Every structure is written in structure tokens, then in C-alpha cells.
Amino acid sequence: MRETADDLVLVINSGSSSIKYQLLDPESGAVTASGMVERIGEENGGIEHRADGKTTEHRAAIADHTAGLRLVFDTFAETGHDLADAGVRAVGHRVVHGGEVFYRPTLIDDDVVAAIADLSSLAPLHNPANVAGIESARELLPDVPQVAVFDTAFFHGLPDAAKTYAIDAKVAAAHGIRKYGFHGTSHEYVSGQVAELLGRDPADLNQIIFHLGNGASASAIRGGQPIDTTMGLTPLEGLVMGTRSGDLDPGIIAHLMRSAHLSIDQVDTLLNRDSGIKGLSGVNDFRELQRLIETGDAAAELAYNVYIHRLRRYLGAYLIDLGGVDAITFTAGVGENSPQVRADALANLSPFGIEVDPTTNTAKDRTARRISPPDAEVAVLVVPTNEELAIARAAHQVAETA
Ligand code: AMP
């Protein structure tokens, strides 16, 4: 079936063993189709594809990202949206690490692919997968402009004092060690939505944004530009996450290697996959955590308290960094859906003009909204993030100006 015009964008988010994708209109945000390929490289791989209100599933062994993306294209064709003829104006690729090199959405050519691959030492789990997704998509849609949109880009201009780690400057320079920040597409998109919702010029706003999903990060934004963020060289620093520790004493790593005889890869796995909410409570899904707390599970309650404690620590830091805040915004899975987290994160802060209205906070509303009392000094907001739409818009813009 032919879509309206050459105006749709295929957004590809290629992870180490998965490919998430959406075909959407960058202007209206209307989604033609979306889905996910899972367990690439395993025997029991598969695709779940949603289009026209129907879900199509296939199970198969998927050898690699090329086979995964080919399955995506075949499933599109099978469900009546042949990508070769679907009006795809651009392909937007989410790329996790842009290093010092990339700080804006970039039209992909061979040199760009090589440069993204070169940055793999900074993001060994993510950038190789992103490259695999890009190479496959270029093969399958050779005539369509492909654009890389970087998770780090929004934070490229962080002030020196915020982005510099206090280690030997020569070692840091030799190994690209600085705070890069991640979830930038989400922080940028949400901060723009906040300004729109408040009817204010972004240049006049001091904002704090909490992106609380499986991964979690906060940012302090002055006049539309971030001045600090919680994630660092890698997406491990900062807030407590589903399976990631966030901040810890760096001495713990040497201690574990010496005393527990863990290898560096085991430490990496421990901190990235077996820590955070999961490490403390045994579950990484926030809904399960809340269920456990209701049953009186002490470990789950401690995990929750550590999560909130860390969040409030950054709230305090960013309030001071910004010298006052106009808007505090919650987004992503937990931020959009847990009134409890929002209320606890901002409890007892009325001396700072920060209040949450219990009625609007707990209302079953999925739209962007204000949850502070109308007369409160600081606007507290819930804004659904939409990284796919932000990537689609960026990719479309680059394709139009290329
Ligand atoms: P994301 O990475 O943005 O998809 O967010 C995933 C996280 O959001 C998981 O920990 C989910 O448990 C959490 N989440 C989703 N829905 C809810 C909900 N209704 N209440 C609390 N947490 C939720």
C-alpha cells in the first residue's frame, strides 16, 4: 500500500540483541507501524510487529542484525506496508555514544559509520549494535538518507566544571574521559514540551527534568541548554536504576577486584545488570517493586528509599546549580506512571515553592500536564517522552537540508 507522500521516517533503535523500530509521520507523530525484534543471535528469536491495530508475531532463529532487519522489512511487506514503496523520506538511527565528535544529527556516510564504530570503546555494548543496524538499513534502503541521532548530543556543551572528572588530566585526555550524558534526545524533547505547555520562551526557563525509566537520569537546563546531568562517561553514573547502581564510591571497584576476586568484566556486569533496584530487591520492574513493598518486604522498601534519596540529592544539587527553578518535570516509564515516586521525590519542599497537588498527581491522565497547585511558585509537570518522534523530526530535517 502506498502511503500519502515521501514524508515518513523509519526510526531504528538497535540494541545489542534487539531492534526496536517505528514508521511514523514526523509532523503529526502518527505511527504507521512499530515493533521489536528480540533475542538476536539466539535460537528463540522473534518479531512482534504492530500495524493497523493488528499485532503480527513470528518466531525464528535470527543470526544477526542484518537478518533481524530483513525480518522487519519482510514483516512490513507482509502486513501491507512495503518499505521500498512506503514513502520513507529518511531513516533515523538512535546512536548511543557520539563522543566528542558528534553533537548534532548527522547524515550518515562511510566516514560517519567508521567514526561511530571508533567510539565503541566508550560504549562497547551499544555502539557496535548501532553500527550493525545502520549498515543493514543502508543495505536494505540504499537510496534513502540515513541519519544518526546521538543520545549524547544534547549534553555536548556542558560547562567544563560539570563535565570534568577530577582525575589526572593527561590520563583523562588520552582516554576521552569526561561526562558525556545520555538520554539527551528525551531531555531535549521534554524540555521543549515543558516550555510549550507553560507558554513560555525556553530561553527564560530554569528546568530540572527527571527521566525515570529502566535507565534513569536527571538534567539541569538553563535557557534551553543543559548545565549538568547525572549520567557520565557511560550511562552508569547518577541515579539508581532498574539494574544499574548509579553513583558509588569508585573505591568499591578496586575492593571487589581485590577482595572478591572479581574480574573487570564481572564488576561491569555486577554494576550494570545486577545492581540498582534489582540488586537491592531482586526485581527490576518498578510495578513489581511496589507490589513487594505492599506485602511488607523490607528489602524492597530499602531499595525504594535508596532510589528516592538519590533522586532528592540531585534535585537539591540542581536547585543550587540553577539558582532556582521554574519547572520540575517527570518523564519515562516510572516518571510518567508512578504518582508515589513523584510525591515522595518532592515531599516537604514547600519552603522552596515546590508542591505536588495530590488530586492531579494521582489522576489517570496520560497527557502532558501540571501536577502542582496552580498558585505554586514552581511548576511540577508530567510530560510523556517520545524519543522516536524527536529522532524522526531530527532525521527528517537533516534529510530535507542534505
Ligand atoms: P521505560 O524504560 O521508560 O520503558 O520504563 C520502564 C519502567 O517503567 C519499568 O521499571 C516499569 O516498571 C515502569 N513502569 C511502567 N508502568 C508503570 C506504572 N504504572 N507504575 C510504576 N512503574 C511503571
From TrEMBL:
Subcellular location: Cytoplasm
Annotated site residues (Transition state stabilizer) in this chain: 183, 244
Co-factor remark: Mg(2+). Can also accept Mn(2+).
MF terms (GO), sorted A to Z: kinase activity
Cofactor: Mg(2+); Mn(2+)
Binding site for Mg(2+): 13, 387
Binding site for ATP: 20, 211-215, 285-287, 333-337
Main localization category: cytoplasm
Binding-site list for substrate: 94
UniProt-listed Enzyme Commission number(s): 2.7.2.1
PROSITE patterns named in the record: ACETATE_KINASE_1, ACETATE_KINASE_2
PANTHER family per the UniProt record, alphabetical: ACETATE KINASE, ACETATE KINASE-RELATED
Family, as annotated: Belongs to the acetokinase family.
Descriptive protein name: Acetate kinase
